[in-house]
Amino acid sequence: MVQTDPEDTHSMAQKTVLIVYAHQSPCSFNSALKDVAVEELEEQGYRVIVSDLYAMDFRANATREDIIGELKNPHLFQYGEETLHAWMEHRLSDDIVAEQRKVEEAELIIFQFPLYWFSVPAIMKGWMDRVLTQGFAFSLEKMYNYGIFKDKKAMLSFTTGATQTMFSPEGINGDINVALWPLQNGTLHFCGFQILAPQIFWSPAFCPDMVRTAMLDGWRARLKGLLKEKPLTFAPCELFDLSFQGGFLLRPDVKKELNSQPYGLTTGHHLGKPLPPDNQIKTQPDESRPKAE
């Protein structure tokens, strides 16, 4: 397992997987899930890099320290603008640059974590805030299916404290598809990633050992064909008027076509219709969305 050396030239043809991992304990179920992924993917011949964020003491807060040298505007610090210029001029802090190199080399990124407050732990959110800088990961011209990382895949693998029924549309926590939309669409797909269906481990802390073992076995089985899976469905940019004059809104002809559909286009683009079932956790058939022209 490669921990921190993305420069390894072991094999130019070898595919690379990056696991961004956030759990404090090496005895945790999340750690076991990470170890299963490393073992199975390496068996398949992949080079696996693990960014163990707690072990690395990765800094979560996005600050002036992320920029080496002078600021473009010292009177009003704007993190996005300053990191864009720093990325262009090779002046980002060393820890950010090291992680960006890993992202560049990876064909797939797996985010392994326990669900905290319907999202990722703060240290992982900090990784996203600091590593996925403007210019490196996105621009106004390069976003969503036009995005910089459109040839890469990403996925969430996480544990929950709640049961699956609690995250159902009728459950007390509400629909898990709604909870996942900001992370999967608003962060990862915004940067262009093709998003594989999440691997969700429901309430392992309250499951007997045999159930946790079955969860690990199921994860190992899925990993055997993971990179051949079809990604989740998101609304392609071609369906929108990509101009400030047009407000980046769905084209009128697309809205008209959607009027005859029983469900909205996606979890986020529902247009007041029922949400397409499991849009953020299962692959949808191609015929379920308007054609991009």
From TrEMBL:
Alphabetized SUPFAM superfamilies for the sequence: Flavoproteins (SSF52218)
GO molecular function: dihydronicotinamide riboside quinone reductase activity; metal ion binding; NAD(P)H dehydrogenase (quinone) activity
Keyword Transmembrane: no
Protein family: Belongs to the NAD(P)H dehydrogenase (quinone) family.
Region (Disordered): 261-293
Subcellular location: Cytoplasm
The protein's name in its UniProt record: Ribosyldihydronicotinamide dehydrogenase [quinone]
Coiled coil segments of this chain: none
Protein EC: 1.10.5.1
Oligomer and partners: Homodimer.
Gene Ontology cellular component list: cytosol
Residues in Flavodoxin-like fold domain copies: 15-203
Reaction catalyzed: 1-(beta-D-ribofuranosyl)-1,4-dihydronicotinamide + a quinone + H(+) = beta-nicotinamide D-riboside + a quinol
Basic and acidic residues bias locations: 284-293
Key words, A-Z: Cytoplasm, FAD, Flavoprotein, Metal-binding, Oxidoreductase, Phosphoprotein, Zinc
Keyword Oxidoreductase: yes
Source taxon at top rank: Eukaryota
Chief location bin: cytoplasm
Cofactor(s) for this UniProt protein: Zn(2+); FAD
Job description of the protein: The enzyme apparently serves as a quinone reductase in connection with conjugation reactions of hydroquinones involved in detoxification pathways as well as in biosynthetic processes such as the vitamin K-dependent gamma-carboxylation of glutamate residues in prothrombin synthesis.
Cited Pfam families: Flavodoxin_2 (PF02525)
